[in-house]
Amino acid sequence: MKTSSLISITALAGASMLMLAGCSGGSGDGGDGGGGEAATRACVILPDAASSPRWENGDRPALEKAITDAGFEADIQNAQGDTSKYATIADQQLSKGCGVMLLVDYNGAAVAVTTKAQDQGIPVIAYDRPIEGADYYVSFDNEEVGALEGQSILDGLAAAGKDPASATVVYMGGDPADGNAKMFHDGAVSVMEPAGITPAQEPPGVWDGDKSATNFEQALTALGGKVDAVWVANDTNAAGVITILDKNGLTVPVSGQDASVAGLQNVLLGKQTATVYKPFGLEADAASDLAIKLLNGETPSVDKQLDDGTPYIAVTPILVGPDDVQQVVDDGNADAAEICTDDVADACAAHGVG
Ligand code: GAL
């Protein structure tokens, strides 16, 4: 990711704060009775529950805790993969009053909400996924996520004694409507291409395990059943791909991200080379700190920016292979009992997970 080091965003944040002060002063901008209460509420919209378990299991509790521990109210809703529901939730939140909004985009729905919030003097933090026009962007370093995935594919090929330059690698990216998908792809390519990898097949990107399975099955058929590795953008998609590899009796390097239960199980079973672990609490804390500063009328300063100039806080992701799974459990971000079910129990024992 291109970033410029230490930029001052005082002017931008200052402008937001002036508007925020107007909103919290009871001008009614926040809607019916936003008034003084508005500045105490952080309004959050999550995208869905299906693309990844992270949103409900990881992000929601972490955001809720950080915001309420700081003495503010957290209004956290989930758009359930529905852009009109996204807009309706936003209108309801704005009419109750918001001092700040933290939005995870879903198919571009957050762009209009951002404009609406800013028109009411409410600063917007793009959480995890970039949103055009947002005041801030807080995420993991998405190109680094992709680079770690690419590295896991190279590691897997090396372990299998295969030359990456002649390997048949299928690329299974994320939904292009999510601005992160391109960053994951760019990061992965930045590592795989110098090793000589080019995509043998590249079906359309999705965030959907079932569709990934279907798309991968078609790609595999087109390749006459031959594949050496599959770069997959996240664990949910990887699980779909793995059902097809299993069906065809194939075990090849597969990447993923989110350290979901399914992903960690596949890593332990040797069906997925690694998952990129993004301790969601770190991301939620970074976003909540920013939100709390804004709610408190402070002027946050951020040391990076996206190519379009949006101030950007990037948290560092971690690559997790079978011997690192216990770290995720120790951090409280996965439950050993949930991971180590019947067919995974032996692998858990072998890799010290419990
Ligand atoms: C991305 C996010 C990933 C993954 C994916 C599917 O934007 O960064 O962690 O969850 O969406 O929801």
Automatic annotation (TrEMBL):
<feature type="signal peptide">
    <location>
        <begin position="1"/>
        <end position="21"/>
    </location>
</feature>
<dbReference type="GO" id="GO:0030288">
    <property type="term" value="C:outer membrane-bounded periplasmic space"/>
</dbReference>
<protein>
    <submittedName>
        <fullName>D-xylose transport system substrate-binding protein</fullName>
    </submittedName>
</protein>
<feature type="domain" description="Periplasmic binding protein">
    <location>
        <begin position="45"/>
        <end position="298"/>
    </location>
</feature>
<dbReference type="Pfam" id="PF13407">
    <property type="entry name" value="Peripla_BP_4"/>
</dbReference>
<dbReference type="InterPro" id="IPR025997">
    <property type="entry name" value="SBP_2_dom"/>
</dbReference>
<dbReference type="InterPro" id="IPR050555">
    <property type="entry name" value="Bact_Solute-Bind_Prot2"/>
</dbReference>
<dbReference type="GO" id="GO:0030246">
    <property type="term" value="F:carbohydrate binding"/>
</dbReference>
<keyword id="KW-0732">Signal</keyword>
<dbReference type="InterPro" id="IPR028082">
    <property type="entry name" value="Peripla_BP_I"/>
</dbReference>
